[in-house]
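Posted in: Structural Biology > Protein-Ligand Complexes

Title: Requesting predicted complex, magnesium ion in pocket

I'd be grateful if someone could produce the 3D structure tokens for the following input. Sequence and ligand are given below.
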Amino acid sequence: MKTLKDAVQVVSFDVEGTIVTTDFSYAIWFEMIPQRYARRYNLDFDEATRRIRKEYDGVGDQRLEWYDVQYWFTRFDLGRADIAMEELQNRVNYYTDTKDVLEKLGKRYKLSVASGSPRPFLKHLLRDIEHNFSSVFSSTSDFKKVKTADFYREICSRLGVEAGQIVHIGDNMQFDFLEPASVGIQAFHLDREGKSKNPAALHSLTQLADLLDGC
Ligand SMILES: [Mg+2]
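-- Reply #1 --
Done. Output follows.
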């Protein structure tokens, strides 16, 4: 009988909330930008945060500018985002199972990244683990879209594999489970906190490694 392990060639990972915590992004949006904004416009931190949140909400996450740090730095006159982001490199935290699982699965499969984070974020988020991946796709930077079915179709074609030969895992029910599954990718919803109503959700990357390695 053909098992999951035999069919799979590529294991694809979401990034934030899946292999890396959201600490780095949080520090940028809700610590560094308000701090700099407060200094620039002579406000206290809470007032700066209140104004910035209002500006973020005014643009909203359906527009690509929302994801673009330099857009906000320019809009608020805060200088260069890339230099500021470098200062927060020490806020990048991997989940405890990340490095082991990448190493283990990397021996048997091609590993790939399918992220909604823009490349300026991925540069920092993947710095210590990038050597594990043979390809990195950013839906917002490379395709100007969120992670839709089309994005996943495009990934299959660029990797030169059938959808059924890819396993994808990520923490967003829509973008990492429903969308990839709709094109035939074997998708797994990662629910690290045990909150999902999806009975098939996995709770760690180790569980995925066991499924792919142990079957
Ligand atoms: Mg995620």
